[in-house]
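Lecture 7 notes: from sequence to structure.

We start with a single chain of 117 residues. Read the sequence below before looking at the structure.
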Amino acid sequence: MPINIEHFDLIWRAKNGDKQALQELFRAYYGTLFGMAQKLAWNRALAQDLVQETMVSAIKSFPEYRMECQFLWWLKRILYRRYADHLRKSRNEVPVYLADEDPPDASVEQTRAIQVR
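Now the structure, written as C-alpha coordinates:
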Protein backbone atom coordinates (compact mmCIF):
# COMPACT_ATOMS: atom_id res chain seq x y z
CA MET A 1 0.00 0.00 0.00
CA PRO A 2 1.74 3.19 -1.10
CA ILE A 3 1.76 6.13 1.26
CA ASN A 4 -0.90 8.54 0.15
CA ILE A 5 -0.87 12.24 0.93
CA GLU A 6 -3.24 11.82 3.87
CA HIS A 7 -1.05 9.26 5.59
CA PHE A 8 2.09 11.20 4.78
CA ASP A 9 0.50 14.23 6.40
CA LEU A 10 -0.50 12.20 9.46
CA ILE A 11 2.99 10.76 9.77
CA TRP A 12 4.57 14.18 9.41
CA ARG A 13 2.24 15.75 11.98
CA ALA A 14 2.77 12.84 14.38
CA LYS A 15 6.54 13.12 13.96
CA ASN A 16 6.17 16.76 15.02
CA GLY A 17 4.35 15.87 18.24
CA ASP A 18 0.67 15.88 17.20
CA LYS A 19 -0.84 13.12 19.38
CA GLN A 20 -4.19 13.30 17.58
CA ALA A 21 -2.43 12.59 14.28
CA LEU A 22 -0.61 9.65 15.87
CA GLN A 23 -3.91 8.18 17.06
CA GLU A 24 -5.49 8.63 13.62
CA LEU A 25 -2.48 7.05 11.99
CA PHE A 26 -2.60 3.92 14.12
CA ARG A 27 -6.37 3.73 13.79
CA ALA A 28 -5.97 3.77 10.01
CA TYR A 29 -3.67 0.71 10.08
CA TYR A 30 -5.33 -1.27 12.88
CA GLY A 31 -7.59 -3.34 10.62
CA THR A 32 -4.77 -4.32 8.28
CA LEU A 33 -2.54 -5.35 11.16
CA PHE A 34 -5.35 -7.29 12.83
CA GLY A 35 -6.02 -9.23 9.63
CA MET A 36 -2.33 -10.10 9.35
CA ALA A 37 -2.14 -11.11 13.01
CA GLN A 38 -5.14 -13.42 12.62
CA LYS A 39 -3.49 -15.12 9.65
CA LEU A 40 -0.33 -15.62 11.68
CA ALA A 41 -1.90 -16.72 14.95
CA TRP A 42 -5.15 -18.40 13.88
CA ASN A 43 -6.51 -17.16 17.17
CA ARG A 44 -8.59 -13.99 17.59
CA ALA A 45 -7.52 -13.27 21.17
CA LEU A 46 -3.85 -13.78 20.37
CA ALA A 47 -4.22 -11.62 17.24
CA GLN A 48 -5.68 -8.80 19.35
CA ASP A 49 -2.80 -9.12 21.82
CA LEU A 50 -0.24 -9.09 19.01
CA VAL A 51 -1.72 -5.96 17.47
CA GLN A 52 -1.84 -4.25 20.84
CA GLU A 53 1.80 -5.16 21.52
CA THR A 54 2.70 -3.97 18.02
CA MET A 55 1.00 -0.63 18.58
CA VAL A 56 2.69 -0.13 21.95
CA SER A 57 6.11 -0.97 20.46
CA ALA A 58 5.48 1.28 17.47
CA ILE A 59 4.45 4.20 19.66
CA LYS A 60 7.55 3.79 21.82
CA SER A 61 9.85 3.60 18.80
CA PHE A 62 7.96 6.09 16.61
CA PRO A 63 10.60 8.81 17.04
CA GLU A 64 13.07 6.40 15.41
CA TYR A 65 10.87 5.89 12.32
CA ARG A 66 12.74 7.76 9.58
CA MET A 67 10.17 7.52 6.78
CA GLU A 68 12.64 5.54 4.65
CA CYS A 69 10.10 2.79 4.06
CA GLN A 70 6.34 2.67 3.92
CA PHE A 71 4.77 3.01 7.33
CA LEU A 72 2.81 -0.23 6.92
CA TRP A 73 6.00 -2.15 6.19
CA TRP A 74 7.54 -0.76 9.34
CA LEU A 75 4.47 -1.83 11.35
CA LYS A 76 4.53 -5.29 9.72
CA ARG A 77 8.13 -5.83 10.83
CA ILE A 78 7.17 -4.95 14.38
CA LEU A 79 4.17 -7.31 14.22
CA TYR A 80 6.32 -10.17 12.92
CA ARG A 81 8.84 -9.58 15.71
CA ARG A 82 6.08 -9.64 18.35
CA TYR A 83 4.79 -12.91 16.87
CA ALA A 84 8.31 -14.41 16.85
CA ASP A 85 8.69 -13.36 20.50
CA HIS A 86 5.39 -15.08 21.28
CA LEU A 87 6.54 -18.29 19.56
CA ARG A 88 9.85 -18.23 21.45
CA LYS A 89 8.09 -17.75 24.78
CA SER A 90 5.53 -20.48 24.12
CA ARG A 91 8.26 -22.88 23.01
CA ASN A 92 10.16 -22.30 26.26
CA GLU A 93 7.14 -22.69 28.51
CA VAL A 94 6.97 -25.97 30.37
CA PRO A 95 3.47 -27.26 31.03
CA VAL A 96 2.61 -27.55 34.71
CA TYR A 97 0.57 -30.53 35.89
CA LEU A 98 -1.13 -30.86 39.22
CA ALA A 99 -0.02 -33.76 41.40
CA ASP A 100 -3.30 -35.62 40.88
CA GLU A 101 -3.23 -35.11 37.10
CA ASP A 102 -1.70 -37.51 34.65
CA PRO A 103 0.53 -35.86 32.08
CA PRO A 104 -0.84 -36.06 28.55
CA ASP A 105 -0.03 -39.07 26.43
CA ALA A 106 3.24 -38.59 24.54
CA SER A 107 1.61 -39.66 21.28
CA VAL A 108 -0.90 -36.83 21.64
CA GLU A 109 1.95 -34.34 22.04
CA GLN A 110 3.76 -35.80 19.03
CA THR A 111 0.60 -35.56 16.92
CA ARG A 112 0.14 -31.96 17.99
CA ALA A 113 3.75 -31.12 17.11
CA ILE A 114 3.32 -32.66 13.66
CA GLN A 115 0.13 -30.67 13.10
CA VAL A 116 1.85 -27.45 14.11
CA ARG A 117 4.68 -28.10 11.65
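Residues 5-93 form a domain with the Rna Polymerase Sigma Factor; Chain: A fold (CATH 1.10.1740.10). Keep this in mind for problem set 3.
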